User: Which sequence fits this backbone?
């Protein structure tokens, strides 16, 4: 018989028995043996586990439960729960002290056990290291208990971490999220000082990440306080954040001793090696004695430590030795000489400063290198010839000469004349106490002699040419300010230069010099003295007039100096004024180190008195303002409104601060508090935020009033979602959002439209809005008003923004759009439609395309009618293609595309270039294909294809022959307007090219080149075509190559060869004179008529020029080409006048002659169309650019751009060859379109369609 575990437990009365081995923190309550059992599940394996088979219970005697032979103890089986365990060791346990007594470890563990649902066991080894074993049901409880236990047992530590100011934002995180995460994870306190209280320390060798190359970033000390292990953990987390933001840093090693700095820089290769291949940069600042290291963070830290170690090492091993050398030889131990000595003997030579009287030279180096270094220094000091040139005395004259030479930079002029010599003049400090002034000249003796000679000649001219006059230095500024022009005239009239000493020197001697370098200088001492005397009298007279000058010192505490100066010196500049010669020095600028609480004012007495009065008033106002601004008030607002009041990055508070000049502080103490209501129910009480405002009382009260009003508005804030179809959103928002912004400003609300993805219409706004929803947020009244106006606008749009969709044949879309969208835009402008969209995706078979028109009912109906009218004009289309060798393309297209236009016209196609576009498409330049594509009406396409095939066949059989024709006969053979040449070409079917024509070289080599080897190239005429035709044409040309032969040949043809002349048909057309120039198109129209076999005779021609005269530009509109941000702007002038204002009245009779009635009818039709087009050209625009630099880009290669613009816009464009004006003639819309297209072309960017 098998017994279950529950039955065995009942039999042995083990239910509720205590555990004989309880854990340290586990309570051991004794439970009754009769315990109410929970309902058991008979099917549960957990409640009823199977056991191994055993003998029947009756056969075994009953034994004691606690005996040695009791067998295994079986507990009641309960539902198991997961247990989380953790073990850790604390090396140093510091038990807390309470009420003056130290608590035990057991008491601490009991507190933790009681507070959290954990079990804790502890053991201590011989090294006093305590190991803790913890168990809990959840990881969260385990972590809390572990943190609390360590907080009790670990010593409290305070760590300081220096962080670059630029990383503080990352450490804090958005709304403090990152810093809060660190605090919650470690349980430590992290203090970051306020921005305005951060010191800008500059410790030697401190790592300082720099935002730029020169400006050093402030380091912010972050204090971490808490249990030692958690403080270290928090420090590591913050360092990781800093490292992620400062992977590249810059450190400076400052205050390096001057004699060590050079030795340290010689170790540069070693420092690079220490970087271990990482990128670093070393920069030396000789003046500040510092080395800057920038680059990878780890490498920079290693290199800085190595530099510091090197400084300490050199400070220990370097020693010095001093020797005395004449001061002039010190000149040879500076500059490049220092580098050379360091390279030769590893020693540094440091001469005494030129301003010091000492003649000592100090040599630094290692003891073993000093002996060699001293020898090299002595050799270098005696390596060059040095000459001391004494300035003539007495010392007063020497100083005058030195002052003049210094002011005109005479030493530099000498160095330029003698580049192999070095010239050194005494410094001002040396000249102040020296009894003799010398100019040191270093170089080869021959070179030095040349310099000495030049100086001697120069000084010889200065003898008797200098003079000093005493003028109180207080009035120097006044004299220079009021008599600047007169001082300049002294040199022009008297050849005398006036040199005032620097104001900082406070010297009263003014130097006058008779300019020896002037071409008009006189060598006569008497003349020099006379001019110097005249100028000195004038200066003394000026000084007497400006004698009303005084200086007044005001005792002002240093703390008020900044108030007097003002931000950026604004207050001080206002006190000084623009036209006064006041000088105001504040504090240390006065020069008295013992007393900085002073302000010195110097100038004219009246100005000084005024300035002193204003300064005292500024200080008095500042003192009163300090008293008045000490007023403060505090009040509370709900925490939920703080973010809106503060604004993004403090913009809301900054607005109040800037407007009212107050200080506003916001403090938050706690997030939320839970308040118990009754026994179980809890409610959340929102903590108030305290706002403190400090400043002038009236300003503080106004700021408080504004903030409370804002809070009241926020409390009154509501929101409403309107259902508005997405199709109306764009018009309700307006261009650039102007309509929506106007509503927001008028009613103080926020209106949000959904920004949706074109793929799935998912909202991209912060609020979850559907595609047809609009959100209005703000005050209740504002929301209601904005809603009302928005719905009214919606109703208006529904009435006026109708949408009409219809289909057109896909083949007509290109004609409807026009090139560059010209036609569709004209339809939109003419009908008043708001928008016309052409669907990019046609139906499945591509036969129809959908067009959507937006606007009023009348506008969309008119637009639909106009579009369908164009679509109806486009008949059934077909496409065809044929392959033509690239070498024939140019010949078929012709100059300016004229050959192709004539071909289409001959085949019965349209003559309008706009309609012709797209009918025949040749491969573009650069394409390797030979395929020519045709698209249009089937009949026309087939005819053009046949014509092209015939032309290609003729071109393939074409040969090129040459004939010698004297150049003097070329003009006669060509004839006026090419008439004779055209007759010959039409009669024989060949092409004849004379030397100098544009297509002459394109004909290629001729077959009979060997026959023409000795012929002058100017006499070679090329004939291209079929061989028989070429031979016939050459025969005619040969006959005509002698004087009068051509006329004899014509008579011969008329008599013997030519058939009787066909009957000539004539028609008469009346053409207004004012349209003549527009129709003729500079003769191209008549050439088109000749293609039909029609010639024109005109009864009269207009006498006035074709291009109207531009009106004057006064009052003209100025435009700018500045679409691109970086493109330079061009100022242009644009004027539009009516066309034909001063045109000639009357008509001209055109007589059309031809042999074919069909040709005459076609010519009459073309003339009537041209007259209608000319009548529509009602405007003339004059576009004037600043220069002609953009004209080549506008005209294009061989006029291609202008031709393209004419075809696209329908306007006639004339680019002047002489002026900067472009004349545009056409309808008003065509003129404007042409102007815009030209400006785009001139700006250097291709037009966008």
Assistant:
């Amino acid at each position: 018989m098998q017994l279950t575990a529950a039955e065995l437990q009942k039999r042995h009365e083990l239910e509720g028995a205590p555990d004989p081995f309880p854990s340290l923190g586990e309570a051991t309550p004794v439970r009754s043996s009769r315990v109410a059992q929970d309902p058991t599940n008979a099917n549960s394996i957990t409640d009823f586990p199977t056991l191994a088979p055993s003998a029947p219970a009756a056969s075994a005697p009953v034994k004691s439960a606690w005996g040695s032979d009791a067998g295994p103890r079986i507990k009641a089986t309960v539902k198991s729960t997961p247990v989380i365990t953790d073990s850790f060791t604390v090396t140093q346990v510091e038990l807390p002290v309470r009420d003056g007594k130290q608590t035990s470890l057991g008491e601490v563990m009991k507190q933790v056990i009681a507070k959290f649902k954990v079990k804790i066991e502890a053991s201590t080894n011989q090294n006093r290291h305590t190991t803790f074993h913890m168990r809990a049901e959840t990881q969260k409880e385990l972590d809390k208990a572990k943190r609390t236990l360590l907080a009790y047992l670990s010593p409290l530590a305070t760590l300081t971490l220096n962080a670059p100011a630029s990383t503080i934002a990352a450490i804090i995180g958005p709304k403090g999220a990152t810093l809060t995460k660190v605090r919650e994870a470690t349980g430590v306190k992290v203090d970051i000082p306020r921005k305005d209280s951060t010191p800008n320390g500059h410790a030697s060798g401190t790592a300082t990440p720099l935002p730029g190359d020169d400006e050093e970033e402030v380091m912010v000390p972050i204090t971490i306080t808490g249990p030692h292990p958690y403080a270290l953990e928090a420090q590591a987390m913050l360092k990781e954040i800093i490292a992620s933001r400062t992977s590249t840093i810059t450190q400076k090693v400052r205050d390096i001793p001057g004699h060590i700095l050079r030795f340290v820089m010689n170790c540069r290769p070693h420092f690079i090696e220490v970087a271990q291949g990482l990128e670093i940069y070393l920069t030396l600042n000789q003046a500040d004695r510092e080395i800057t290291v920038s680059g990878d963070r780890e490498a920079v830290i290693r290199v800085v430590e190595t530099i510091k170690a090197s400084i300490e090492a050199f400070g220990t091993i370097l020693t010095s030795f001093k020797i005395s050398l004449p001061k002039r030889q010190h000149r040879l131990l500076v500059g490049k000489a220092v580098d050379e000595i360091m390279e030769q003997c590893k020693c540094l030579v440091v001469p005494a400063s030129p301003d010091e009287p000492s003649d000592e030279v100090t040599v630094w180096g290692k003891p073993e290198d000093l002996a060699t270094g001293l020898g090299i220094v002595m050799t270098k000091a005696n390596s060059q010839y040095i000459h001391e040139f004494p300035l003539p005395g007495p010392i007063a004259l020497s100083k005058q000469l030195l002052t003049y030479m210094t002011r005109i930079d005479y030493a530099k002029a000498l160095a330029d004349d003698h580049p192999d010599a070095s010239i050194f003049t005494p410094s001002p400090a040396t000249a102040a106490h020296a009894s003799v002034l010398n100019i040191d000249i270093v170089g080869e003796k021959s070179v030095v002699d040349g310099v000495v000679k030049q100086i001697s000649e120069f000084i010889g001219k200065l003898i008797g040419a200098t003079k000093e006059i005493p003028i109180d230095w207080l009035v120097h500024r006044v004299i220079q300010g009021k008599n600047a022009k007169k001082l300049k005239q002294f040199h022009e009239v008297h050849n005398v230069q006036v040199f005032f000493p620097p104001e900082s020197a406070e010297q009263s001697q003014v130097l006058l010099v008779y300019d020896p370098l002037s071409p008009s200088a006189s060598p006569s001492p008497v003349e020099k003295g006379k001019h110097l005397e005249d100028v000195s009298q004038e200066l003394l007279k000026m000084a007497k007039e400006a004698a009303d000058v005084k200086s007044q010192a005001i005792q002002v505490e240093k703390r008020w100096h900044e108030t007097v100066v003002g931000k950026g010196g604004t207050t001080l500049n206002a006190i000084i004024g623009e036209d006064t010669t006041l000088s105001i020095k504040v504090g240390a600028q006065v020069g008295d180190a013992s007393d900085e609480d002073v302000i010195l004012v110097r100038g004219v007495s009246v100005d000084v008195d005024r300035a002193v009065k204003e300064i005292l008033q500024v200080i008095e106002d500042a003192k009163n303002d300090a008293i008045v601004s000490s007023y403060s008030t505090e009040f509370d607002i709900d925490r939920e409104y703080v973010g809106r009041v503060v604004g993004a990055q403090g913009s809301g508070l900054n607005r109040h601060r800037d407007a009212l000049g107050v200080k506003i502080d916001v403090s938050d103490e706690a997030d939320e508090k839970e308040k118990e209501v009754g026994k179980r129910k809890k409610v959340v009480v929102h903590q108030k935020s305290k706002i403190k405002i400090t400043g002038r009382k009236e300003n503080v009260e106004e700021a408080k009033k504004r903030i409370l009003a804002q809070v009241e508005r926020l409390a009154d804030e509501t929101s409403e979602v309107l259902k508005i179809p997405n199709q109306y959103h764009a018009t309700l928002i307006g261009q650039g959002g102007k309509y929506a912004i106007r509503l927001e400003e008028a009613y103080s609300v926020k209106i949000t439209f959904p920004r949706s993805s074109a793929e799935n219409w998912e909202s991209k706004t912060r609020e979850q809005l559907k595609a047809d929803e609009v959100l209005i947020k703000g005050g209740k009244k504002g929301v209601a008003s904005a809603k009302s106006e928005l719905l009214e606008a919606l109703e208006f749009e529904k009435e006026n923004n109708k949408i009409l969709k219809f289909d057109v044949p896909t083949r007509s879309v290109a004609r409807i759009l026009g090139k560059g969208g010209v036609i569709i835009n004209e339809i939109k402008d003419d009908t008043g439609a708001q928008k016309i969209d052409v669907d990019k995706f046609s139906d499945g078979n591509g036969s129809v395309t959908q067009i959507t028109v937006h606007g009023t009912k009348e506008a969309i109906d008119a637009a639909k009618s106009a579009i369908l009218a164009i679509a109806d004009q486009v008949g059934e289309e077909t496409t065809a293609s044929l392959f033509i060798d690239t070498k024939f393309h140019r010949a078929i297209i012709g100059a300016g595309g004229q050959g192709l236009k004539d071909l289409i016209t001959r085949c019965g196609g349209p003559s309008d270039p706009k309609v012709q576009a797209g009918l025949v498409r040749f491969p573009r330049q650069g394409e390797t294909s030979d395929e020519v594509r045709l698209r249009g009406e089937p009949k026309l396409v087939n005819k053009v294809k046949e014509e092209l095939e015939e032309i290609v066949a003729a071109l393939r059989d074409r040969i090129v022959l040459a004939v010698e024709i004297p150049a003097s006969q070329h003009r006669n053979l060509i004839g006026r307007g090419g008439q004779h040449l055209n007759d010959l070409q039409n009669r024989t079917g060949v092409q004849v090219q004379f030397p100098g024509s544009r297509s002459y070289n394109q004909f290629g080599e001729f077959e009979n080149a060997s026959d023409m080897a000795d012929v002058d190239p100017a006499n070679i005429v090329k004939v291209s075509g079929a061989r028989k035709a070429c031979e016939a044409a050459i025969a005619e040309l040969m006959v005509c190559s002698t004087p009068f032969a051509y006329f004899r040949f014509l008579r011969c043809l008329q008599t013997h060869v030519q058939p009787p002349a066909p009957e000539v048909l004539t028609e008469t057309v009346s053409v207004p004179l004012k349209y003549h120039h527009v129709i003729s198109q500079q003769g191209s129209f008549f050439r088109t008529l000749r293609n039909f076999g029609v010639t024109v005779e005109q009864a009269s021609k207009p006498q006035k020029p074709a291009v109207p005269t531009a009106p004057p530009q006064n009052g003209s509109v100025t435009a700018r080409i500045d679409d691109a941000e970086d493109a330079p702007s061009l100022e242009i002038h644009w004027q539009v006048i009516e066309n034909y204002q001063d045109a000639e009245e009357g008509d001209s009779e055109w007589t059309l002659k031809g042999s074919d009635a069909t040709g005459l009818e076609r010519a009459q039709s073309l003339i009537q169309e041209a007259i209608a087009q000319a009548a529509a050209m009602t405007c003339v625009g004059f576009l004037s650019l600043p220069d002609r630099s953009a004209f080549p880009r506008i005209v294009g290669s061989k006029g291609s751009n202008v031709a393209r613009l004419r075809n696209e816009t329908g306007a006639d464009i004339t680019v002047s060859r002489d002026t900067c004006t472009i004349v545009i003639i056409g309808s008003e819309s065509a003129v404007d379109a042409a102007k815009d297209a030209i400006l785009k072309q001139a700006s250097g960017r291709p037009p966008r369609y």
Summary: The two ends are 98 Å apart (CA to CA). DSSP finds 44 helices and 48 strands in the chain. The mean pLDDT is 78.
